[in-house]
Write a structure and sequence with these properties.
84% helix, mainly alpha
């Protein structure tokens, strides 16, 4: 199969369903016009004027920086704490009740509390993201570390792998498939919480702007913000998939072997 054919098939696989959905949306807007659900053409017409002007630096960039900060912090804390808890049966038994309690609390409920503790600045929004995104990373890391093959652990012990070397060469690589699964789940949660935090108390950001447009009945502009969030999530998913292939190349070879 030629490279051109593979590229075309890959593009169709990625873009085929979105194109069909947009065509269906367009046909519906022609058949049943609605002020509250504008056509894709109307949204596309205002998209550039809204998001590719001053709002790119005033709203989009701050949102992405908050998202990145909260996601990275959640990933680092989740992997570090999850590794420590997964390696220690005593620590796991001591922390399990508290983990189950806090995991059951919906992160949006914590937003008013975080606002009281951290104020209304960027730190509050980052903490909101961390409060929800940390859980899939933490729990998947714990389970991944606990599931390390005992034969591999015994082999590492025989060869004298202990301490940081054992962690770096055995535990984290063996747990990395589940860690990456947790990081993938955390990414979508982080995007949701970024928007929620900006809707609650913010003077900038994509979430704040979408709510502002809704209150002003600027419906096409509001929909353009929703489309932008979808594009951000899609592009971040593609970037994460590329990173995942790079990190787990050894695991994928074993799976397909």
């Amino acid at each position: 199969m030629s490279r051109a054919v593979r590229l075309v098939r890959g593009a169709l696989r990625v873009l085929g369903l979105p194109v069909l959905l947009v065509l269906g949306w367009w046909a519906w807007s022609v058949w049943r016009p609605s002020f509250y659900v504008p056509s894709p053409q109307r949204i596309a017409a205002v998209f550039g004027d809204v998001w590719l002007t001053a709002r790119l630096g005033d709203d989009v960039l701050p949102s992405l920086l908050r998202l990145l900060a909260g996601y990275v912090l959640a990933a680092l804390l989740g992997v570090a704490l999850g590794t420590a808890i997964g390696l220690s049966a005593r620590l796991r038994a001591a922390t399990e009740p508290a983990l189950e309690f806090f995991r059951a609390i919906p992160p949006p409920v914590l937003v008013p509390l975080i606002m009281l503790v951290a104020g209304l600045d960027t730190a509050m929004k980052v903490l909101v993201i961390v409060s929800g995104a940390i859980w899939p990373v933490l729990l998947n890391t714990i389970e991944g570390v606990r599931a390390v093959d005992e034969v591999l652990s015994d082999t590492a012990r025989v060869y004298g792998l202990r301490g940081p070397a054992r962690l770096r060469r055995l535990v984290l690589p063996a747990a990395s498939p589940q860690i990456m699964a947790g990081l993938r789940q955390a990414l979508s949660i982080a995007i949701i919480l970024m928007v929620i935090a900006e809707m609650f108390a913010s003077t900038s950001g994509i979430g704040h702007t979408v709510v502002l447009f809704q209150r002003q009945f600027q419906i096409p502009q509001m929909w353009s913000g929703i489309v932008l969030l979808g594009l951000v999530g899609f592009l971040l998913s593609l970037a994460f998939r590329a990173l995942e292939r790079r990190v787990l190349h050894w695991h994928q070879r074993e799976t397909h072997a």
